[in-house]
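task queued by scheduler; priority normal; single chain, no ligands, no partner chains; default sampling; output format set to structure tokens
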Amino acid sequence: HPFEEAYTAGAAAAVLGDRRVCSLEARIVPKQEAGALERPIQQLDCQLRQWDNQETDYLQIEHRLYYVLHIPKRPDVPHRGGGDGLTRCRDAALRQETAAVAGALIRLREAGSPAASRICGMDACATEADARPEVFAPAYRRLKDHQPPPLPALTSRIPMLNVTYHVGEDFPDLVDGLRAVWEAVTFLELGRSDRIGHGLALGIDPEHWYRSKQYRVYLTRQALLDNCAWM
């Protein structure tokens, strides 16, 4: 929508217009096709260049604005089997979509797209209970290790991707929150340059937390089984 494009570009320009701001992170929900993934970056860049009508080019978006792919978690839809007689694993559809997003970004990087040089990382957002870290693990590991081939014609270096995963912030039981953080670090293979979003479960006093819940927590049988198996 034109109005949405205008206020998005205006908000970014207002921040980048402040010389004290070194860099600005813009988050975009990715598409599963390389061209569709590239389009919102090109559109916002174009809008900001139109916004910046000064000779000094004070926004300097190529050096100060970077993008992070923001993949939303969502609840699983149980699948009891289709015509092939197979039973799908939990979050099967989201796993496939996340793999498709990773493939689209890799194609964009290997093609030497200028937009790929502006994408510095990926994140998973939305309610933590909707999907566990393992759902995103194959895509995260694939992207973290991806090194695009050298492209002499490309003027901008395509960076190695850093990742963030929001976890340990929204949990029905403290054990569940701690397990989620452990799963993110383990399955996503988070390293020194990566980030855990919030991670509140790591800093909570267990006795105080359970007392505040009157020593009663409510969670699904599946989550309880997973927590017991993890412990």
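post-processing summary
- The beta strands are 24-28, 65-72, 119-125, 162-167, 195-198.
- The CA atoms of residues 49 and 84 lie 52 Å apart.
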